[in-house]
Inverse folding.
């Protein structure tokens, strides 16, 4: 699991929003997907369902990256 500072996360989501940058998305995926998956499993979801939902969340990030505003929240909160 990678750990990235908030300004780097905001920069990466900006690249996804502006350019559909797959490398930037891959870095975001590597950062957030394991955290989302683990959180959902700690809530009691079965591992396969937690993984599916984590992937759905990341798909939403891909499609709605242009809506993120780093002045209003951190990417993790958004």
């Amino acid at each position: 699991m990678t750990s990235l500072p908030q300004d780097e996360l905001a920069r990466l989501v900006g690249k996804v929003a502006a350019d559909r940058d797959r490398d930037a998305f891959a870095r975001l995926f590597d950062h957030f997907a394991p955290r989302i998956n683990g959180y959902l499993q700690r809530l009691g979801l079965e591992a396969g369902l937690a993984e599916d939902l984590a992937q759905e969340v990341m798909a939403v990030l891909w499609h709605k990256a242009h809506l993120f505003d780093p002045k209003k929240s951190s990417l993790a909160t958004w």
